[in-house]
Design brief:
The chain is α+β, with helices and mostly antiparallel strands and 125 residues long. The chain is built from three helices and nine strands; from the N terminus they run H-E-H-H-E-E-E-E-E-E-E-E. The protein has a single domain, classed as Lipocalin, CATH 2.40.128.20.
Length: 125
Amino acid sequence: MTATAGIEKLKGTWEYVDGEHFDDYMKEIGVGFALRQSAKLIKPKLIIKENDGKWILKSESTLKSATYEFVPGVEFDETRLDGENVKSVITFEKDKWFHTMRDKSGKESTIARWVDAQGQQQIVC
């Protein structure tokens, strides 16, 4: 799966700016109240890299860090930051990156990422 120019813009280091609606998303996927409250205080730094078709997404914070390596379009095992094990696949469609996770009960959730006209990474859950 070839990355478009819009996907290429996602590469780099991104500082957390705003988490509007993130609590709603965490609630929807079953994250408990106490962990959601803690997550509101975290301002992770995201690092996105690619090397020969293998992508790396690294989330760093003072509380917890995680690194995921993936090939676009290929399912992989992921442990979310809340400890839940899920099956994930990341695909690129036009200038957007879609990260779909499926939990053990089969429930799916998708996160979309892209870079807007102002050069800011947007994430919609």
